[in-house]
Amino acid sequence: MAANVRFDPEVALRAHYAAELEEERRLCPPAPHAGEWLPSPPVAAVPRRRRSRFLLEAATAALLVLSAGLSVLSRGGPLGTALADATIKGGRAAVVGAAIGGRFTSAVEGFCELKGAKAGGATAGRYR
Amino acid sequence: MESLIEGSPWAGEGADDAGFEAFWREWRPRAAAYARAFGGLSAEDREELAAEAVTRAWLAEGRRDRNRPFAPWFFAIVRHLALDTLRRRRELSASPENFDRSASHHEGPEGGALRKEEAEFVRRFVAALPERDRELSCLIYGAGLGIGEAARIAGMPTGTAKWRLYEVRKALRKAWEREYGG
Question: Which residues, given as ranges, of chain B have pLDDT below 70?
C-alpha cells in the first residue's frame, strides 16, 4: 500500500540528508572559548595587506646585522681599519649611517607596533 | 551561507570569538553531516573531525582564494580529514549487499507512520550505498552543491558523477518498489 504513495527518490534523499543535518545541529556542542583553541588567526590567516608587517621583523634583523658591521668599522683593528679607510675616507659612512639609522628607527617602531598588536590579541592555545 | 563569510569578522581583520561562534554554529553541523557519508567513522570520530575541520578552515581562511565559493573548499577539508582517519584505521565501508531489508515492516499508508517508515528505509539504503555514492549524494542532496563542485570534491569527472547519481536514484526507486510492490 505504501507504493501507492508517490515515491520520489530525490525528495526522499533530500529529506534524509536534511534530517541528518538537523540532528547534527541539535547535537552541536558550543564553540570552544578563547584559550581552548587558537582564537586569533595565525600568520597564514592574516589578510594579505597586513602580511608586509611581518617583513619588518626580517628587515629589523638585517639592520641589526648591518649596525653590528658598522660598529666593527668604528672600533678599528686591522680589518676594521682597512675597511674604514675605504669607507670612511670616501665619506660614505655618515650617509650610510644616517640612512640606516632612519630605517632602523622605523623598523623598530613597526616591530614594536607588531608586538603590541600581538600582545593585545588572545593568546595562542590549543584546540584538541 | 556565503554571507556568513563575506563581509563579516570572518572575512578579515577582527577574527574574534563571536565570529568564530557563528562560524562554528553554521559549519560544524554541516561537516558532521557530510562525515556521515564515510562508512567506518563513529559518532565520536565525526565530532572530532567536524571540530577539526571547522578549526582548520577558520585558521586557513587567509590562504583561501576568495574568488572561489567557500562551501566546496570547506567540504574538501572535511573529506581530507575523513579519508585520513579512515586510512589510518584501514576500515572498510559497508557494501550494498548488506542492505538489511528484514528490519523493515509495513505499518500502513497513514501519514506519520509512512513518513517514518520511508525515512527509515532511505536511511538504511543510504547506509548500504558504496562510500563514493553516499558521499556524492550527500554533497548534492545534503550540502546543496552543484554537480560540478561535488564531482571535483569527490575526485571524479562530472559525467561520472551524474551517472552515479542517476544510478543511486534508480536503485532507491527499485529497492522501494521491491519492498512495497510496484
Answer: 1-16, 90-112, 114, 182
Same domain for B66 and B131, yes or no, is no
Sign of the torsion formed by the C-alpha atoms of B152, B56, A19 and B7: negative
Report the CATH number at residue B44. Answer: 1.10.1740.10
For residue A15, being part of any structural domain is answered with: no
Reported ipTM: 0.75
Please state the domain count of chain A: 1
Question: Which site among B21, B58, B116, B166 would you substitute to test the A interface, given the most A Cβ atoms closer than 10 Å to its Cβ?
Answer: B58
Q: Residue length, chain B?
A: 182
Q: How far apart are CA A96 and CA B84, in angstroms?
A: 55
Measured between beta carbons, the chain B residues lying within 8 angstroms of A46 are 62
Q: How far apart are CA A60 and CA A42, in angstroms?
A: 21
Residue whose C-alpha cell reads 634583523 in the numeric block? A61
CB contact under 8 A, B24 and A31: yes
pLDDT score at B8 = 40
Q: Is the domain of B103 the same as that of B33?
A: no
Looking from the CA of B108 toward its CB, the CA atoms found within 13 Å total: 3
Are B6 and B75 members of one domain? yes
List the 62-101 stretch of B: residues with Cβ below 8 A of A. 62-63
pLDDT of amino acid B86: 87
- Residue B64: its H or E element: none
Greater confidence (A71 vs A32) lies with A32
C-beta atoms of A127 and B51 within 8 A: yes
Chain B hits for A16, Cβ within 8 Å: 119, 122-123, 126, 141
Reading the block at residue A9, the C-alpha cell is 527518490
Which residue, B30, B17, B38, B39, is CA-closest to B80?
Answer: B38
pLDDT at B146: 93
- From the list B25, B33, B16, B82, the residue with the least C-alpha distance to B54 is B25
Residues of B with Cβ-Cβ distance to A11 under 8 angstroms: none
